[in-house]
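TICKET: design request
STATUS: open
ATTACHED STRUCTURE:
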């Protein structure tokens, strides 16, 4: 268990012991609900149970669990349920809107001055307390284990509150009396130091403006706005926690390797200012010292050099996004209607509902038989990530008849909605363009991650790179079991112009929730690179809280309960035929087959066809392969280019894989 989680749980148990010994009168309260009706928690003369849940209108987990409290209240009609808001930043209007938007079916009371939160020693939202008729705390902690920050299981594995209620109604002792709560710290009222050298208006507002408000503003995916003191002061403790734990700002590259244009890093001095400000009680300072409002592109919905020349929707019909649950990746094919080859110098993706689109990637799929070097990544949307730097002299070539593939990842937020994501394209002047942008994809598909394996290593390499041009950036891609990613280069002995770090990127703590493009500050000449290799590590153990099922072996697949080992390299090459010729990266000569190897190869082929040959006709058509292979890697598998995969083709690929594995490559 992580040391911070252990300390939190220890504090919960100590607080529970304190509360159990406290006078029951200390826990009683009487407050009006949102409709003016008095709601009381008091001692009862007969057996009775009450559930007190502390909520926050902008806490992501409180939103997800709001509806579940109503269902539990319906399931246990003899139990009283009361929602308490102790956040100083939650107004009565905020609470009424929260009730309406998330269909809260239990009474909500406002705990002005956080007196009730102090009585219960409550720390987070949504934290629940089960008390009996004597106001003795029987259970304190989470509602269940389905949701954590950035993690959503398909179903809970333990419904803690429901179990505690059921056990007590059956006159049994509650088996688990305390659990750790993952959620937002309650925004208590603070006593601030007016003489503090650090305050919101002068320093903190500028730090938040530069590092946080790109996402934490109205209409964006982030859960709360950080534009005003009245809002920020209630979040001050939570802001400090996520910064100290390295969760925010979201950036996962090891600073020891590489420098990146788009890196999101807060300086040590800025972090210390936030610590000092919180320690001083989060003083406001003089509002006259506030910085001017920053333009994040609100004046125009597009952050492009000009209005797009063409806008393409991912689909004609909106995708319905439910209020709760886990959604698999969705893929949409859109026809941009290009009748001639077209150069695109800038592109941006805008979600229909930013509150649920976690990320969107748009790929180009050239028509069958066309130059496949034009396939690949066109643009991506990740919260807070700006479009790549615009340069009218370089662009992506989209061939006539190409289709666009939208890969959509949605996260539910407690409210049902719908989405039509779209992409805006800026066309380039062919006469000005002297460099072509390409996406080179490397993927390793032949792996099996054993059940409960905490450190499964999968190596891979780029099999082709252009001979000339520039290496601009890299984007790794795994799913929930992804643990780390490293990209290493072997440089040409003739490249003596500069001393280079062989490790171009290290991501020691990969997070599926953040699909970063790591753009190099200084592009690397492709002619200096002899080869590029990557290494992916997966954690399929129960210690990985995002793991869908540690008891299941995992292979390559589209959906998030399967895995991928993929790296997207972004390069720029001169517009001439010679530059398009690449260098194949060749491995060592492979040893001949052995009877054991032949058996392994045949077993792999049989498994592959059992999994993918849906119509059992003896071949795997393009439509039967996973979407990511269908749109990006099918051509590399289809050796005879006939649009389907035969057993002989899969056998050749499997043979090479197992021989490489046997030789240690």
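STATUS: resolved
RESOLUTION: sequence designed for all positions
ATTACHED SEQUENCE:
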């Amino acid at each position: 268990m992580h040391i911070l989680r252990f300390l939190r749980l220890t504090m919960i148990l100590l607080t529970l012991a304190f509360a159990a010994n406290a006078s029951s009168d200390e826990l009683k309260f009487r407050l009006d609900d949102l409709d003016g009706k008095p709601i009381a928690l008091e001692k009862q003369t007969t057996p009775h149970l009450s559930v007190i849940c502390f909520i926050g209108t902008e806490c992501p987990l409180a939103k997800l669990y709001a509806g579940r409290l109503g269902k539990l209240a319906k399931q246990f009609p003899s139990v009283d349920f009361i929602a308490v808001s102790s956040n100083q930043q939650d107004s009565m209007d905020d609470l009424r809107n929260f009730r309406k938007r998330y269909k809260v079916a239990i009474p909500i009371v406002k705990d002005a001055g956080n007196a009730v939160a102090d009585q219960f020693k409550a720390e987070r939202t949504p934290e629940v307390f089960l008390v009996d008729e004597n106001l003795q705390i029987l259970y304190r902690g989470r509602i269940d284990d389905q949701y954590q920050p950035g993690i959503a299981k398909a179903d809970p594995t333990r419904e803690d509150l429901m179990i505690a209620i059921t056990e007590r109604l059956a006159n049994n002792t509650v088996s688990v009396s305390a659990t750790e709560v993952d959620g937002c710290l309650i925004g208590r009222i603070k006593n601030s130091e007016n003489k503090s050298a650090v305050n919101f208006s002068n320093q903190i507002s500028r730090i938040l403006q530069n590092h946080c408000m790109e996402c934490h503003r109205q209409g964006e995916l982030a859960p709360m706005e950080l534009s005003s003191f009245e809002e920020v002061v209630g979040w001050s403790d939570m802001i400090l926690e996520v910064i100290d734990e390295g969760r925010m700002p979201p950036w996962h590259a090891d600073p020891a390797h590489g420098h990146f244009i788009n890196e999101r890093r807060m300086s040590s001095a800025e972090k210390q200012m936030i610590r000092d400000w919180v320690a001083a009680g989060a003083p406001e300072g003089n509002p006259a010292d506030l910085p001017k409002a920053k333009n994040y592109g609100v004046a125009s919905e597009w952050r492009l050099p000009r209005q797009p020349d063409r806008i393409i929707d991912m689909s004609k019909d909106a995708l319905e996004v439910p209020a709760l649950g886990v959604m698999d990746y969705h893929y949409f094919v859109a026809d941009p209607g290009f009748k001639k080859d077209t150069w695109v110098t800038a592109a941006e993706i805008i979600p229909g509902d930013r509150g649920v689109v976690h990320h969107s990637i748009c790929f180009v799929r050239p028509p069958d038989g066309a130059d496949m070097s034009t396939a690949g990544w066109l643009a991506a949307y990740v919260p807070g990530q700006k479009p790549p730097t615009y340069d009218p002299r370089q662009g992506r070539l989209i061939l006539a008849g190409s289709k666009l593939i939208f890969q959509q990842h949605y996260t539910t937020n407690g409210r049902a909605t719908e989405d039509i994501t779209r992409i805006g394209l800026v066309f380039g002047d062919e006469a000005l363009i002297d460099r072509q942008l390409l996406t080179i994809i490397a993927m390793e598909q032949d792996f099996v991650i054993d059940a409960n394996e905490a450190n499964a290593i999968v190596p891979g390499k780029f099999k082709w790179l252009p001979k000339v041009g520039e290496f601009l950036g890299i984007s790794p891609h795994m799913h929930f079991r992804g643990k780390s990613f490293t990209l290493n280069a072997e440089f040409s002995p003739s490249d003596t112009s500069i001393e280079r770090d062989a490790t171009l990127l290290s991501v020691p703590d990969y997070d599926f929730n953040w699909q970063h493009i790591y753009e190099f500050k200084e592009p690397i000449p492709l002619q200096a690179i002899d080869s590029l290799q990557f290494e992916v590590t997966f954690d399929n153990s129960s210690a990985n809280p995002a793991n869908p099922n540690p008891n299941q072996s995992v292979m390559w697949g589209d959906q998030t309960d399967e895995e991928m080992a993929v790296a997207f390299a972004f390069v720029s090459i001169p517009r001439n035929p010679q530059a398009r010729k690449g260098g194949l990266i060749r491995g060592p000569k492979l040893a001949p087959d052995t009877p054991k190897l032949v058996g392994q190869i045949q077993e792999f082929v049989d498994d592959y066809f059992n999994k993918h040959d849906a119509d059992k006709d003896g071949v795997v058509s393009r439509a039967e392969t996973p979407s990511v292979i269908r749109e990006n890697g099918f051509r590399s598998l289809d050796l005879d280019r006939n649009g389907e995969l035969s057993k002989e083709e899969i056998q050749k690929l499997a043979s090479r894989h197992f021989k490489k594995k046997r030789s240690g490559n």
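CLOSING REMARK: The domain at 595-662 is CATH 1.10.238.10 (Recoverin; domain 1). The mean pLDDT is 88.
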